[in-house]
Design a protein that fits this description.
mainly beta; 10 strands; 2 domains; elongated; 261 residues; 3 helices; OB fold (Dihydrolipoamide Acetyltransferase, E2P); 5-stranded mixed beta barrel
Length: 261
């Protein structure tokens, strides 16, 4: 989900898209709208009238008429009618964003959430938006543990090989494992495909303690998996990975290959 660009994580909207997606809308080009001249300042919203909406769970893509011109925005699934004036809270610009669901690439799109009616967007620390950055912390953190799925997995056999680690091992030895390749075998407890051009998964293997947050680790990969799969991954340990907007993964395994299911 796109280059090394900052990523915003925003409040989950607990309502669903309910309009029907027509073939004409899907077929319409969505990469030809020019971005607004300059992104809003941090903590400010992007306000415009909804000209078009496209469903692509877990997002709604909105073409907005703003004071700066037409722009695209992406928000969590929400019931928004054409002609409605909305404010996108804490918008973050993504260039050349590929929607695998739509099989289209946006030249520019602002990710955010719909600000409450009559309320001004704030710069307060947001929580996770479905499908944008799965499992990110609810507040900026460099050393803490991520918010993860509530499920706690029973023990899974450790991966084989000299680079094999348990989830708890990676947390405990993160300093010495930085930029090194590790193999981890665990159960996929959360999965979000096609986010920032990668598939994101949370693995648990029964090691660690939920109260300490060292029982779960976030992994990115080009390989597809499914929630509930028991997999072995091999990837590179990154520390304090900063995606902008105050969101830093204390430990992340990137560019992993799923070598066994």
């Amino acid at each position: 989900m796109r280059g090394a660009l900052p990523l915003i994580l925003v409040l989950t909207v607990a309502v669903g898209c309910q309009s029907k997606k027509s073939d004409a809308v899907v077929a319409a080009p969505i990469s030809g709208v020019m971005p607004a001249a300059g992104a809003p300042a941090p903590g400010q919203g992007l306000t415009g009238k909804v000209l078009e909406r496209i469903e692509a769970a877990p997002y709604c893509y909105l073409r907005l008429q703003t004071a700066q011109g037409e722009v695209w925005a992406a928000v969590p699934e929400a019931k928004i009618e054409k002609g409605t004036e909305v404010t996108i809270a804490n918008p973050m610009l993504m260039n050349n964003f590929e929607s695998k669901t739509l099989n289209k690439t946006f030249a520019a799109v602002y990710f955010g959430t719909i600000a409450p009616a009559g309320g001004a967007p704030t710069a307060a620390a947001p929580t996770t938006m479905p499908g944008v950055m799965p499992g990110a912390p609810a507040a900026p953190q460099a050393m803490g543990a991520p918010v993860v799925a509530k499920e706690v997995v029973s023990k899974v056999d450790k991966a084989a090989g000299s680079d094999a680690q348990t989830v708890a091992d990676v947390w405990a030895k993160k300093a010495s494992l930085k930029e090194k390749t590790v193999s981890i075998r665990g159960k996929v407890v959360k999965y979000n495909p096609g986010v920032m051009g990668k598939n994101w998964m949370h693995l648990q293997d029964g090691s660690g303690e939920a109260g300490k947050g060292n029982h779960d680790i976030t992994v990115t990969s080009q390989d597809p998996v499914a929630k509930g799969d028991v997999v072995t991954i091999k990837g590179v340990v990154r520390l304090d990975k900063d995606f902008g907007a105050g969101y830093i993964y204390a430990v992340l395994v990137e560019d992993a290959k799923v070598v066994k299911k």
